[in-house]
């Protein structure tokens, strides 16, 4: 049977599944069962999810967990997290509790500007292009009025449009580089609509600009698109406490712990191989909240990693120091987030997640997300520089291994108790399951 198909998107959901199962699963009914067992019995809810994308055949579940006890700027939060990695929510919760007793997290939004660009080719005199840009700039604002008027009423809109000469990097390449304030919206649709209108007006006006030669008049628009690199949409989150308060464990000397912790951060600042893993741990916390709140984690990932390389070498997103016997640990990251538009009012769980966060503004959500990243990094570095990561990791992963072996509830209870006092490695867990079962 041919594995290609035409008109797939127009088939009914059930015909799509039949085709998939026949073509790729050799008509195996088990595959159909797996696909269908994730359907929601609430038909309206299922239809809502079906319509988020094209060709939906089922739902893909991720655990939706909550990390309580986050004190951020003197306000308590229980942070919603959607993530599959066993230890992430546990680590966030532990870090939250730790800092709750030490004044909590302080966070501030440093800037909120977003960026979009019209990329175009122009072959001619730059001075004439610049003069044209000056005359056309007010028309670009005017032409986008229907798109911007509501945003402007609320205090946002287009901040500025610049002409940028990029012809040194690529022959004939120029940009309209625009900056935007999109308030509580992530703003992708708003920015892209503005940019496409800029491009249209810019090209049309160029055709009628008398100072251009015939060749110059023919500006070639390559594309108009927002940038997910938002170095001026920045948030900072911080924790601090006297060095002596840094550990609850009498076996750990707080000063030694602080020094080792700071060295671990410094290693991530200077060594890209470590920085990537260090930042991955931060993104464990960030993505989980971004996803739970219906935001675009791919955009956030792309922007954050670009920011981590802004000085020419990929580096840590967090920093730490001791000053006057006070330990400081902080993060500074760009985050383009929305709390209106997109999925925020459409996806019932996203709505619930935002409600759980006291229906935050985009700025408040930036703070919460940055804190989740910082907390996650604190928990990871604390484990890495003390017990090692595997102890906590394997404790959380234990349940996954037990489930792989289809352990009964009774077996789970026995083995969870056993591994409270024994080191859990994959092979040790497998051996313990076999031992337990052979005793029966
Ligand atoms: C695992 O998902 C994340 C860590 O590797 C982060 C780190 O090493 O800092 C534990």
UniProtKB/TrEMBL annotation:
A UniProt-annotated Pfam family: HMG-CoA_red
One annotated GO molecular function: hydroxymethylglutaryl-CoA reductase (NADPH) activity
Keywords assigned by UniProt, alphabetized: NAD, Oxidoreductase
Cited PROSITE patterns: HMG_COA_REDUCTASE_4
InterPro entries linked: HMG_CoA_Rdtase (IPR002202), HMG_CoA_Rdtase_bac-typ (IPR004553), HMG_CoA_Rdtase_cat_sf (IPR023074), HMG_CoA_Rdtase_NAD(P)-bd_sf (IPR009023), HMG_CoA_Rdtase_sub-bd_dom_sf (IPR009029)
The protein's Enzyme Commission number: 1.1.1.88
GO biological process: coenzyme A metabolic process
UniProt record similarity statement: Belongs to the HMG-CoA reductase family.
PANTHER family membership: 3-HYDROXY-3-METHYLGLUTARYL-COENZYME A REDUCTASE
Protein known as: 3-hydroxy-3-methylglutaryl coenzyme A reductase
Species per Swiss-Prot/TrEMBL record: Formosa maritima
């Amino acid at each position: 049977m041919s594995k290609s198909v035409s008109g797939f998107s127009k088939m009914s959901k059930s015909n799509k599944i039949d085709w998939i199962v026949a073509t790729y699963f050799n008509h195996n009914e088990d595959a159909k069962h797996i696909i269908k067992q994730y359907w929601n019995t609430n038909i309206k809810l299922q239809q809502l999810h079906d319509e988020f994308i094209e060709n939906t055949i089922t739902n893909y579940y991720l655990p939706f967990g909550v990390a309580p006890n986050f004190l951020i700027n003197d306000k308590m939060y229980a942070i919603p997290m959607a993530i599959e990695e066993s230890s992430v929510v546990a680590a966030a919760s532990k870090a939250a509790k730790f800092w709750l007793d030490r004044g909590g997290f302080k966070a501030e939004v440093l800037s909120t500007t977003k960026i979009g660009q019209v990329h175009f080719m122009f072959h001619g005199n730059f001075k004439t292009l610049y003069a044209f840009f000056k005359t056309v700039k007010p028309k670009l604002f005017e032409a986008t009025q229907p798109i911007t008027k509501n945003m402007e009423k609320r205090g946002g809109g287009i901040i500025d449009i610049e002409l940028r000469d990029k012809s040194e990097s690529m022959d004939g390449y120029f940009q309209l580089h625009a900056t935007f304030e999109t308030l509580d919206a992530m703003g992708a649709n708003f920015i892209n609509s503005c940019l496409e209108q800029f491009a249209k007006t810019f090209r049309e006006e160029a055709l009628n600009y008398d100072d251009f030669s015939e060749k110059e008049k023919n500006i070639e628009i390559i594309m108009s698109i927002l940038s997910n690199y938002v170095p001026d949409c920045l948030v900072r989150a911080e924790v601090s406490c006297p060095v002596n308060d840094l550990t609850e464990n009498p076996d750990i000397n707080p000063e030694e712990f602080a020094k080792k912790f700071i060295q671990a951060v410094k290693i991530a600042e200077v060594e890209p191989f470590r920085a990537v893993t260090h930042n991955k741990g931060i993104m464990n916390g960030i993505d989980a909240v971004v996803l739970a709140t219906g935001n675009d984690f791919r955009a956030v990932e792309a922007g954050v990693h670009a920011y981590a390389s802004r000085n020419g070498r990929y580096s840590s997103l967090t920093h730490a120091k001791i000053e006057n016997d006070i330990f400081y640990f902080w993060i500074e990251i760009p985050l383009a987030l929305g709390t209106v538009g997109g999925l925020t009012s459409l996806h019932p769980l996203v709505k619930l997640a935002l409600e759980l966060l006291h229906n935050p503004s985009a700025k408040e959500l930036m703070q919460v997300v940055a804190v989740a990243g910082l907390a996650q990094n604190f928990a990871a570095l604390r484990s890495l520089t003390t017990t090692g990561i595997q102890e906590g990791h394997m404790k959380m992963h234990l349940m996954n291994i037990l489930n792989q072996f289809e352990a009964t509830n009774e077996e789970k209870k026995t083995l969870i108790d056993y591994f409270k006092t024994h080191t859990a490695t994959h092979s040790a867990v497998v051996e313990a399951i076999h031992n337990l079962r052979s005793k029966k």
